[in-house]
Design goal:
The chain is α+β, with helices and mostly antiparallel strands. Helices cover about 25% and strands about 25% of the residues. Helix 4 packs parallel to helix 5. The longest helix is centred in the middle third of the chain and has 18 residues. The chain is globular. Bound molecules: S-adenosylmethionine. The site of S-adenosylmethionine has 17 residues, from helix 5 and helix 8.
Length: about 450
């Protein structure tokens, strides 16, 4: 691998005598790893665990993930191992013990958001935001597949969060960066690398932090991470924050055998993964706790922009999910969705300030006298398995379904049928008896040849 000469010089200087080890690691294949969805269990034969992540596993080789129906059922997420260190921050700061309001500001494609959803209490709420529209669509797809109802997806610029003063207990800034840490997995990242791009990334990161800092509560936690090595996007950003804001840098305890480098400067703690020391890619992470007081946003409960849902509809859809008593039902543009009751007061505020792409659990679309079940419902971990007839597909049938081919459902009940693979929901079909309509979302259809 030919590194751009300025990048090579920088890394040589930064790593000193370890530089040859680093170069050697770049010649090795990138480890392949996945993180399992604890709410969607299936039979697997993964055996090599990732030490710092309970549901993380290394795979011996890279399969064609697109041709595995379980990926589309949200049973696992393909994620680089170093970034799974996020789990240690959550656990060691008890963020998994108490309900919290969390924001993943730069969330696409959704690796850390799906991880957070699995770790946080079900009473917590996660807002996953992505500013770039096309990437926000991919984020939605991945979060809907993961199937957690305590989630909102927004597509906003970070500055739009500044109004939500003192709202969040946890903010994750997994910042857009120069991506030096991913060059082994994704060598084309090198084409983008330049000193100038690095400076642009660094000033963009400062702007993002400045925009969102007011939205963090006093005592709230901000996780700043990148997948790059240079100090300008990492430690120097923390030093800049130290001048601008009041916070405590929180250390985390990591087993020495994991190989993560602990960086310390002034009172700052940060953690750097290098591919020659950790079984994973390059990753940088630091945890800050805000110590200054913040203005707080008042949450007014009251009427939302949504229409009241007709009683008969509430009665019908309540039967579609488990624990319906924990949710309120809302209707917007003919779409009925369930949203956790305890966060109801937030809806009005968020609808006023943000562009919301997805909220809670979309249940169905009201059309004439019918409610057409939504795709998200079939994939939801909240789904009531007795709500609709289901029909189990083998791998070949499941792939044909995901390809949007017509499926033979002559052995299934008529009407809306939830199709499953290894008992996990894949989506809906409408079985008309002599034929069936494939209701898999057009934009999600797999395009690889499945036969
Ligand atoms: N957290 C994600 C995950 O774990 O899957 C990866 C996030 S990636 C490192 C950074 C994200 O920031 C990208 O999706 C990118 O589109 C987004 N981004 C780009 N410019 C941005 C900006 N000015 N403000 C906020 N986010 C931005």
């Amino acid at each position: 691998m030919n590194l751009p000469s300025q990048l090579a010089q920088r890394l040589n200087h930064q790593l000193a005598e370890a530089y040859p080890d680093f170069l050697q690691a770049l010649q090795l294949p990138a480890p392949v790893s996945t993180r399992l969805n604890p709410k969607k269990t299936f039979q697997h034969s993964y055996s090599e665990k990732i030490d710092w992540c309970e549901n993380g596993f290394y795979l011996a080789a890279r399969p064609v993930f697109t041709l595995d129906p379980l990926l589309h059922a949200g049973a696992y997420y393909v994620q680089e191992a170093s970034s799974m260190l996020l789990e240690q921050v959550v656990i060691q700061n008890d963020l998994d013990k108490n309900a919290c309001l969390a924001l993943d500001l730069c969330a696409a494609p959704g690796g850390k958001s799906t991880h957070l959803l699995s770790l946080l209490q079900p009473q917590s709420l996660l807002i996953s935001n992505e500013v770039i529209k096309t990437r926000a669509n991919i984020l939605s797809e991945n979060i809907i597949k993961w199937g957690y109802p305590n989630s909102i997806i927004t597509q906003n610029d970070p500055q739009h969060f500044a109004q939500l003063q003192g709202l969040f207990d946890l903010i994750l800034i997994d910042a857009p960066c120069s991506g030096e840490g991913l060059i082994r997995k994704n060598p084309e990242a090198l084409n983008e690398w330049s000193e100038n791009n690095l400076k642009l990334c660094s000033s963009r990161q400062q702007r993002i932090v400045a925009d969102v800092w007011p939205a963090l509560k006093e005592g709230g936690i901000l996780i700043y991470s990148t997948c790059t090595y240079n100090p300008e996007e990492n430690m120097q950003q923390l030093l800049w924050m130290l001048q601008e804001y009041a916070f405590r840098s929180l250390p985390i305890t990591l087993d020495e055998r994991w190989g993560v480098e602990h960086l310390q400067e002034k009172n700052l703690h940060a953690y750097q993964c290098w591919p020659h020391k950790v079984k994973g890619e390059g990753f940088f992470m630091s945890v800050l706790q805000k110590t200054s007081s913040s203005n707080t946003t008042n949450l007014k409960s009251g009427k939302t922009k949504n229409n009241t849902v007709h009683k008969s509809i509430v009665q019908e859809v309540s039967n579609w999910i488990q624990q319906p008593e924990a949710f309120h039902f809302h209707e917007q543009n003919e779409m009925v969705f369930a949203f956790p009751k305890q966060h109801d007061a937030l809806i009005q505020l968020l609808q006023a300030e943000l562009y919301i792409m997805h909220m809670g659990l979309p249940l169905g679309e009201v059309k004439k006298n019918k409610i057409i079940p939504q795709h998200a419902l079939a994939l939801s971990t909240q789904y009531n398995p007795t709500a609709f007839p289901s029909f189990e597909l083998n791998k070949e049938q499941a792939l044909a379904y995901l390809h949007r081919d017509s499926i033979d459902l002559s052995a299934a009940a008529k009407g809306f049928v939830r199709l499953t693979h290894q008992q996990l929901g894949l989506g809906w079909a409408n079985n008309l008896g002599n034929r069936s309509n494939n209701m898999y979302p057009v934009n999600w259809r797999i395009r690889l040849n499945v036969s």
